[in-house]
Amino acid sequence: MQFTKTITSWYSVNKRSLPWRDTKNPYNIWLSEIILQQTQVKQGLPYYYAFLKAFPSVFHLAEAQESDVLKLWQGLGYYSRARNLHAAAKYVVNDLNGTFPSNYKDLLKLKGVGDYTASAIASICFNENTAVVDGNVYRVLARYFGVNIPINTTKGVKYFKTLAQTLIDAKNPADYNQAIMEFGAIQCKPQSPNCNICPLNTSCEALAKNMVKTLPVKLKANKVKKRYFNFLVFISEDGKTILEKRTGKGIWQNLYQFPLVETKQDADFDVFSEQLKTETLLKKQSFQLSLYNKDSIVHKLSHQHLYTKFWIVNVNKLPVKGVVFKDVKAYAVPVLIGNFIEAFQFK
DNA sequence: AATGCGGGGGT
DNA sequence: ACCCCAGCATT
Fold this sequence. Notes:
By secondary structure, the protein is α+β, with helices and mostly antiparallel strands. Helices cover 41% and strands 13% of the residues.
């Protein structure tokens, strides 16, 4: 297929030099693929180096505490990736004697490994003939073949997986898969691709029909929800504050935060001050309240905007076991909390 | 099939 | 304000 030949020869000339391209070690490739899920190379690169340094092998990772893995993952987002990474490492060590699964089907059994990642590892490390379909592949194929089926539907997912599988270079799945992704990232990029220099510009359906800007088609996402977060930054006379672990289902699972009071709307000082008197932590406790940031800090996640206030709660003695100020930075926290800790300087 | 999950960067 | 990113798990 001409498409396949052009993509692979483009890749041999234009590929970036990246650390995970110097190895076929499945541990390294797996780590890189998990880090790069929904994450650009530039953002993930420092984490890849940090993880390999802290956990050079799957055995090191399996022996770690989840809290240490999350701390190292801090700032990268989608924290279930870190929790699943750690769980999968323990599975590989405890159930598979440390030997990585070596085919698509068995790779899928690892937590956090879905169709894309199993295909990537199987092809790159074991040369299995299974096509990857990531955001880049959707875009390249939708444009080149002029496909307007929405990519985020069951029909679209199946269609593109099948199409990708017909195009893969069976003699070199490892390079072909990486080639089409790199082509999407650098040449057939989302915004204003330079089609003048594209090696496929004489046969690209989207270019011929002036559809480059409208492909691929993606069904619109839901609207962003607004939430109002009030963090209680306790300050005790013996130099401690309170950190709580987030449990349950929502965002930032297993990360730490200051005690949180969520309100239906932006909290007013007087109203909130009264409300606090009924909070469990402050029921039988006198406290002095001050507001750290008058204007809410807006922290934007994909599907929620968090309007956030940090309330400084001075107390004589903490109602629960606290954390001494110098230890606060050892906890894995969301970026929103980490930024506050950096700026506030506990002392 | 629909929803939730982070954070950074670009336009 | 909206889109994108080497997606996955849950319901």
